[in-house]
Design a protein that fits this description.
211 residues, alpha+beta, 6 strands, globular
């Protein structure tokens, strides 16, 4: 079935391909001190279609309103707008819901990281059975950050979401660029139990390992 299996591994493949195809553009982006989130969303959306042969509107899409689980504490809204959704390749009828954030190491970075933490908190509280959620993720691509400060901020965002560690996949890394400052990236993913059950029952395979 067309789709993706692992959000972080897919994003790493996207960045690897992007570094080959769009090296000059990435170098320019790494020097910016304000957002390029819209560019990232469309670039990733089109790459997913081309790389995996996905059908726009059926297997992948942008700007989707997801319902939130009101049984979880401190919920202040009924829905959350997410940037991307992609069909799950291993669980028929299930989907990966993704939020994108592009924080910058400027005077506004604290507010940007708080917003990214909120995004993962909400994506960890999807009404999973209602919208066939396989996973909920927050993908961050940051410019101008020290590697250690970046890792600390991501760890704080994961802790803030309050998930069972067994249900979280986390990938944090650096994208080095020739003659330009590196970009930091991270993918925080909440695995929903309904997806694991579907994978086992439909494909006879174990759920994806936590990385």
């Amino acid at each position: 079935m067309p789709g993706i299996s692992h959000v972080a591994h897919t994003f790493l493949a996207f960045l690897t391909d992007l570094k080959l195809r769009r090296a000059p553009s990435l170098s320019e982006l790494s020097r910016l001190r304000n957002g390029f989130e819209g560019w990232l969303k469309i670039e990733l959306y089109l790459w997913l279609i081309e790389r995996y042969g996905l059908r726009a509107g059926d297997d992948v899409g942008v700007e989707y309103k997801v319902w939130l689980d009101q049984r979880r504490g401190q919920m202040d809204r009924a829905t959350k707008q997410c940037d991307l959704w992609v069909r799950d390749a291993e669980a028929p009828g299930y989907y990966h819901y993704i939020e994108l954030k592009v924080p910058f190491a400027n005077y506004n970075q604290g507010k940007l990281f708080l917003s990214a933490s909120d995004d993962f908190w909400y994506m960890s509280r999807l009404l999973a059975s209602n919208q066939s959620a396989a996973t909920g993720s927050a993908i961050l691509l940051g410019a101008g950050f020290d590697e250690h400060a970046w890792r600390r901020a991501i760890d704080e965002a994961v802790a803030y979401a309050g998930n069972d560690p067994a249900q979280v996949q986390l990938e944090v890394n650096t994208l080095t660029l020739d003659e330009a400052p590196p970009l930091q990236w991270a993918v925080m993913t909440k695995l929903y139990p309904s997806r694991s059950v579907s994978v086992v029952s439909s494909a006879g395979a174990a759920p994806l390992p936590v990385s």
